[in-house]
User: What shape does this take?
Amino acid sequence: MSSTIAIHYRLLRAEKAPTSGAPPLLQEVDSAADLELQRQIQDADTNKRVTSVGTVAAQNSLLHEHVKSVPFELPILGYQIELDQAGISMWDRDLKYWIRIAHGGAIYFAVGKNGDLGRLFLAVWTEGAKPATDLADEATA
Assistant: This one.
């Protein structure tokens, strides 16, 4: 018998464009338009659960397949989610960079439209996802 685990969605915005290949500084969205986009993305997934598996790689793969199967009515408010191009990290709002995790699943997607590219990212992770123990060594771009 397989068990399932809850998943979460959060829309993040870049404060400014990255420099020298560094990832952008991200914050949670706060404008009315971005919050509405986040709500519509979250509401599109009526299940918000995925099968729980043992390894991070397998969990990320299942998480990615689940998100790709959500019946998003794209574009949402003119925005596309780059569903085929998932990154495999979690944004740490305290440390201010993407970290790899040691338990659970965590992926992200670019979200954009003409005239607004590189500003928004959709973070998706499993309940209880835990970062790797040595965060400095696990930072990703």
Observations:
- Residues 57 and 119 are 27 Å apart (CA to CA).
- Residues 56-69 form the longest helix (14 residues).
- The chain is about 20% helix and 35% strand.
- Residues 135-141 have pLDDT under 50 and may be disordered.
